[in-house]
Amino acid sequence: MDVRIFDDMNFYITPDRFFIEPSESEQFVIIERLNGAISLHTLESKERPPIHGYELRKICGVLGIVRLISGLHLVVVTHRIFVGLINNEPIWQMAGYDLIPFTPSLTHLSEGQKDQNEIYLSMMRQVLDTPFFYFSYGYDLTNTMQRIGSNPGVVVSINDVKVNGHVLSWILISRRSVQHAGTRLFCRGINSDGEVANFVETEQILITAQDRVSFVQTRGSIPLFWHQTPNLQYKPRPQLLVGRDHLIACSRHFDEQCKQYGAQGLINLIDHKGAEEVLEKAYEATISAIGNPSLKYVSFDFHKECKKMRYDRLSLLMKRIAHQQDSFGVYHTNHVGQVYFVQKGVFRTNCIDCLDRTNVVQSLIAKRSLEQTLERLGIFKFGEKHIDPDSQFEAVFKAAWADNADLISLQYSGTGALKTDFTRTGKRTFKGLLRDGLNSLTRYIKNNFTDGFRQDSIELFLGMYRVREGEGLDFPSPLSVSDANVDWRKRMILATLLFEIAMFFVIMVSPYEFSYKTGVLLLGWGVMVIVTERFFVKNRKDFVDRPKLLSKK
C-alpha cells in the first residue's frame, strides 16, 4: 500500500467535528468530537470540509490524541523551523503546538476535576515545551542509515562544511529511547524487560557527492537494578536492589543490543572508589558471569585519571579501545545505495548519569572515526591525519557535540551538560568550572523539588500512565487536593529557609559598623536558619517532589 505523507494541512473546527484537509490531496480526515471516531473521505463524498462560518487553521502535522479528565484532546503541530537536509529530505524542528479539546466546555466537571485537568494540561505542555522535537516527512529520523539501508521503504545537527575544497554535509543525530524513560534520579538502571534509563543512540553521518558514511554509538544507564532516590543530599548514594535477578535482566538487555548493533564495547567511566564503587564491581562481575564473547568490558575511572583537569589522559582510554573501534568500522554506501561496508559493533558508554563524562568520551570516539573516514575517502591531503584545529570544520564539530550534550542533559537532568568547555574548546577552563558549578546547583534544586512533576509529565505523555474516564469523580485521582496542600506547606517552609539564609548574609555584608544590635540580629537569624535547617533535614524525604501517577516510583 502506497502511503502518502502531507506537510501542509487545513484544519477546520466545527461544533461536532474536526476536518483535516491536506493542501494537495483529494482526500481528507474527519474526527468525531463526540466519540473520537476517525474516518477517511474524498472530496467527492457528501461529507465535505466546511467552506464558511467555522474556524480554520493551518497545521503542519498531527502528533496524536490523548485523554485527560475533561475528555480527549487532539495534539497538532502548528509551527516548524527548517533545520537542513538529509538525503535531500527536509528536516524540521517543532516550533509550536496546540492541545485542542474534543469537549469545548468544562461544565461537566467538578471543581476538583477542573483543577486536576489543568495539572494534566501543564504536564503535557511541560514535555512539549522541552527543546527539541524534530521530524521529517520524507526521512526516517528514528532509524540509522544502516537500518534504513537493510530495510528500505532526536537531537539533530546538520552542517555544511568545506574540507580541502570538498563540500560535505556532516550530521549528528541523537535518538532518545521512550522505554524506561524519565528524569535523572527517578529513573535509573534497568527494568525487568531489559530496558535501561537514558538510553540514547547517536549517529554521525558524513555525506559527500559520492559517499554516505554513518557511525553509531550508544549510551545507557548501568544495566543493573539500582536506584539513587533524591533525599536532599547533594549526591544520594546509589544502591543496588537486593533480591532482583540482575543477571537475567542484563543478559536480556545485551541480547537485544547485540541483535540490534552487533558486538558491544562496554565503556564504564564511573569511579572505582567511593559511592560508585559498588556499581562498578557489580557491573563487571555481571558481564563476566554472562560470558558473551561479543561483550568486551572496559573500565576507566574518569575522575581519577583526569583529575586536576588532565583531560589529555583520555588518550590512554582511546589507545585501549582503538583496535576494537577499527574492528567495528562504519556503514558506508555510495550515492545510489550500493553498500561497501557495514558497522559490525558499537561502543556503549556510560557514567553514573550517562551525560557529562559520557559525552566527552563519545565525542573523542566520533572524531577518530570521522578522521579515519576523511582519510579513506581521499578528502585529507597526503600525510594528513587530523582535522585542522583552526578550521571551520573543527569548530562546527565541537559546537555540535557540546550542543548534543546540553540537549540530552536538559531532557534527563533539567540542565545543560557539565564539562562542555572541553568539548567546545579541547581543554578545561576556569569559566567552564564556574558554569559546571551553576549547573550542578540547578540540577540539585530541580532533581529534589521539581522532578516529580517532570517524571509524571513524561509518563503521561508516553502513555505509561493513562487517564481513565471518570477519574476524580467515580474513583480518586492521584492528583488529590490533599497533595496540593502538602506541596504548599513544603514550598512555604523552603521559602522560609531561603529567606532566613538571605537575611543572615545581608546583615553580614552590611556596610554599617558592627554593633551589639547587629550581633543580636546575626545570632537571631543564625539560630532560625539552624532550627529550620534541622527540621528540613530531619524530614528531608517529605520535602522531595515525588511522582504521583505511578506507585512504582
What helical percentage do the residues reach? Answer: 25-40%
Question: Separation of termini?
Answer: 43 Å
In terms of structural class, how would the helical and strand content be classed?
alpha+beta
Tell me the radius of gyration: 27 Å
Strand count, sense and barrel status of the largest sheet are:
9 strands, mixed
Global outline? globular
Number of helices: 14
Extended strand count? 20
When the domains are counted, the total is 3
Beta-strand proportion: 15-25%
Uncertain segments: none
The pLDDT mean sits at 90
Account of the protein in words:
This is Phosphatidylinositol-3-phosphatase SAC1. Keywords: Membrane, Transmembrane, Transmembrane helix. Its EC number is 3.1.3.64. With 553 residues, the protein is of the alpha+beta class. It contains 14 helices and 20 strands. The strands form 4 sheets. Strands 10, 11, 12, 13, 16, 17, 18, 19 and 20 form a 9-stranded mixed sheet that branches. The protein has a 5-stranded antiparallel sheet with strand order 4-3-2-1-5, with no helix packed on it. It has a 4-stranded antiparallel sheet with strand order 6-7-8-9. Strand 3 and strand 4 form a beta hairpin. Helix 1 crosses helix 11, helix 7 runs antiparallel to helix 8 and helix 12 runs antiparallel to helix 13.
Produce a short descriptive summary.
The protein is an alpha+beta fold.
